[in-house]
Amino acid sequence: MKRVTILLFLFASALHGQEAPTITIRKGETINVGLQTLGGSEGAASTKVLQNDLDLSGWFSISPPERASYIISGSSAGGTLQGQVTDQRGSVVLQKSYSGGPRLAAHRFADDIVETLTGHKGIASSRIAFVSTRSGRKEIYTADYDGANVRQLTHDNSISVAPALAPNGSKLAYTGYQSGYADIYLIDLGSGARSRIIKFPGTNSGAAFSPNGGQIACTLSKDGNPELYVIGAGGGGARRLTSTRGVESSPTWSPDGSQIIYSSDERGSPQLFRIGAGGGSGQLIPTGHNYCTEPSWSPDGRRVAFTARTGGFSIAVKDLQSGATNLVASGEDPVWGADSRHIIFSSGSSLVLLDVPTGRSVPIVTGLGKVTEPSWSR
Amino acid sequence: MKKLLTFGVMILLAATFDACKKKGTGPYAGIEGDYVSGTPLPDRIEGANFFGSNVTRGQFSPVYFAYDSSAISDSESGKIQRVASAMKSMSNTLIIAGFTDERGTEEYNRGLGEKRAQAVRDALISQGVSGGRIQTVSFGEEMPADPGGGESAWAMNRRAEFGVVK
């Protein structure tokens, strides 16, 4: 009893004895923004999308107006969104009109907010492509980055895999087996037109668009061994980059299109290598892991994400400047978003949106059987 | 003295030979200077694919592979000899399909399956079968022979299968 009294006394003294320290709660380095529900007939729908985009972006904390550094407001009706951002003094920092319907207009506004307030590119208007077994066969699907608007793109009733969106989202290449062989097909996403563009003898797979969309890097086995090639985006002019005894796979381009990182098992187990897009010899990228595949080069050029076998599989991120490699999640096949901050990867039964700096992960596609091999437009 | 000189010259030659190999000249020098010879694939046969009705599967035993490997083990090489012999007494072309178990990542497995098919093709070529008669395709981890999990199922899936075009 005596002990409890003393404790209580001490506690009370602590409370009254000194000024309570100011506790600053920092959620990473987020910017506090106030979001006013948008007006107009589509205001509620747009606000919901906008709030989710701002939240997922990782840059903001949605706060009451008195604590906000910026206030977001506007209205949405008839497919057009009028958006505005003002600072604490009421000065307008962004005022613009966005089209495309309540969803897409909100995504575009969100991206503009990200760019205006942080200087970074937004991911809200981007699209993803992936493989799903929902229909009983592997087919290619597309969706918005937040998992909305899922659409089945192929109905090949065969094996359709390895989708690759062009960075601007206008076209998609994929590996299809309709001919009985692995060939690369190109779909113009605007018109829907499809053609088989790469159909050399043997296996053609792993298409990856260069940053300006003008070239495709891929694996071809036509010369007797699976090697890395660069081909014009229409399918012409195949140029071989590698000549090794091993399997080269999963090329990913540097942001300026001058280099390619890929996986090769030339040394036994698959490792990451870097090679000039014009040719040369591949240089090993040490990662500390002995099975590294499916690399993705971040748009800012600083990091490469990849799948590492660690018992199961993990998403690993190597900082190309510092050399450090960290495991950031369990899963496979990472792809970077335009902000060089988020990664989408496959956990098998879902696609997951990962905010790398905070580790926050959000499933964005679920309930479609096995979902794998995500690609992400920028 | 003469013996020493001859010996010395031999050492010198051997060293030069070794150095030449390591340097890796020509347009096909690989990462560590290995010269790689792959036999290019012939054009595909019009209208013939591995699962088509004009291709006979199962005539020859599949060749099986160790985990993460495309090397043909001694115990499997007899199968290739039998295929090579059969090829010499017929004019048909062959499609070799390569497969993996489910454990690797998808795109790498497509490449590994292809490497297995091409390793078998190379072995047939070295036994006198013309490379112009042999196509390859990889299905990666698709269409397992045994869809179950575990070591024995996986061992059945790491394979190259033969399809004889009618």
- The CATH topology of the largest domain in chain B comes to 60s Ribosomal Protein L30, Chain: A
Poorly predicted ranges of chain A (pLDDT <50, ≥5 residues)? Answer: 7-27
CATH class placement of the largest domain in chain A: Mainly Beta
User: What is the distance, rounded to the nearest whole angstrom, between the alpha carbons of the first and last residues of chain B?
Assistant: 68 Å
By DSSP, the count of extended strands of chain A is 28
Which range does the strand content of chain A fall in? over 45%
Helix content of chain A: 10-25%
How many strands appear in the DSSP assignment of chain B? Answer: 5
Radius of gyration of chain B from CA coordinates: 20 Å
For the CA atoms, what is the radius of gyration of chain A? 24 Å
Can you tell me the CATH superfamily of the largest domain in chain A? TolB, C-terminal domain
Q: Biggest interface pair, residues each?
A: A-B, 51 and 43 residues
The number of domains of chain A is 2
Question: What's the CATH superfamily of the largest domain in chain B, by name?
Answer: OmpA-like domain
Q: What do the pLDDT scores of chain A average to?
A: 93
Mind describing the biggest β-sheet of chain A?
Answer: 7 strands, antiparallel
What's the structural blueprint in terms of helices and strands?
The complex is a heterodimer of chains A (378) and B (166).
Chain A: H1 2-17, E1 31-35, H2 43-57, E2 60-62, E3 70-77, E4 80-87, E5 92-98, H3 101-118, E6 127-132, E7 139-144, E8 151-152, E9 160-165, E10 171-176, E11 183-188, E12 194-198, E13 204-209, E14 215-220, E15 227-232, E16 239-240, E17 248-253, E18 259-264, E19 271-276, E20 283-285, E21 292-297, E22 303-310, E23 312-319, E24 325-330, E25 332-336, E26 342-346, E27 348-355, E28 360-376
Chain B: H1 2-23, E1 55-57, E2 63-64, H2 74-88, E3 94-99, H3 106-126, E4 134-140, H4 151-157, E5 159-165
Parallel strand pairs in B: 3-4
Antiparallel strand pairs in B: 1-5, 2-5, 3-5
Helix pairs in contact in B: 2-3
